[in-house]
# Entry
Amino acid sequence: MRGARSAKWVAGAIIVALSATACGSGDSGDDDKNSAGGSFSMDIAEPKRLIPQAATESAGSQVLSALFTPLVEFDAENQPVLAAAESIESEDNKVWTIKLKDATWHDGKPVTAQNYVDAWNWGAYGPNAADGNYFFGTIAGYEDMNPTDPDGEEGPKEAPKPKTDKLSGLKAVDDKTIEVTLNAPFSGFKSVVGYTVFYPMPESAFEDIKAYEQAPIGQGPFQMDGEWEHDKLVKVKAFEDYKLGDKPKVEGVDFRVYQKQETAYNDLLAGNLDVINQIPTEVMGSAPKELGDRFLTSEASTFQFVAFPTYDKKYDDPKIRKAISMAIDRDEIIDVVFQGSQSSADAFVSPVVAGYREDACGEACKFDPAAAKKLLKEAGGIKGNKINIGHNADGGHEQWINATCDQLKKNLDLDCVSQAVPKFAELLTQVEKKQFSGMFRLGWIMDYPSMENYLGPLYTTDGSSNYYGYSNKEFDKLVQEGREAKTEEEAIKKWQAAEDILVEDMPVIPLRFGKNVFGHSEKVKNVEMNLFNQVDLVKVEKS
# Structure
């Protein structure tokens, strides 16, 4: 186990508090800001962090997408396209040279290669407990910054102090050139650096990282407009000297924090909110009529699942896990609760990534109550005949989890209850510390378009978001071999073989592949959401 592992929350592909959106007051704000050319407002949850290397959930990542420009972005075919980088090249997929475009920090200073190096070193240094620490694990020298916890007779002991606070495989060759040496070849590294944790930070950030987080300085299309007002508001305004792409078409964005989706949706209908990034399931049937052509959907990379605490002997047998999966009628819940806005998951990776195989999960993900009951009986049943499914109360999950429990009661004669934890971060804290005794829901949005981004963080033994304690050496081996493969085709074969192991072990129950289902007011137009569950802020215009 990594030294920083126990302190991280959601490294990686953004674990989403699906619909964990905000608590607005209903105040329409400054009327002048709603005029043509002014600002627009959108809902978010309270971000966990606003430091790039530590912001790995959807709300924080959305805000930082305004303040920063990544090294690469992705085209319609999910191929990396240069953004802040002038070039990213490697002859052996192990030593990578990144050339930077000219860019300016929001405080007017030039962006340098050293700014990237310093930010990545900060994220990789175990004691900083950055949520994105895991993603620097491919770079040489990571092990020295994250010593392994020694195992004693009474369990893991405190990790030793790191030998260094700098990655040996990372250096600034000059002001515009970064050289990255990996532990092993990784052909997909060019895509990886498009993720939030690979943003740079200015030199001033390290003078007082806590103060920096309240008003991050970036090099993106927007800059902070005041400080982060926790549980209420984050305001940004257009950055006049932006050099790395198209400039915003609005003067600013007000990210309003909500605790309830319903409140945000009501504010949208009342004209007090301009963009809602997730239509509440409760109004999915009426929203198309209420919003008309302002009710929008788009493809997403979201993967919703229920995880088993594999460290709990109650769920130790894969037959028990498969039986529970086969007793769930995914299609019925999608039709009744989600009004058809999602699709049943039949694999452990999203259909949007290369390598996805239709029906990869096979019988384990198909509704078959008779076979499920038989399998559960073969496994000896569940102790106490009781199960619970945990979820974050701020995420709008109660309805579908209750529906799932009703099915498990009917199809497996289990006493199943929904167990709510007030906030998403609290749920993650409990499951990470193994304090939550039961199944729990999670959601995943990819950080970069690759099977590996689902398999590595979620299921490898040291995976950043493996909260359920799953470990399989052969699986880990195949994921790593895929990373080191010379071509994408060779990598996919390895990762598909790894996915086949998940089908046998069933550490989680794949439930749904999501779509972006969002809406906007009459005051804005050109509102789009990408595969990463983010609104493309630069494209939005006032009507």
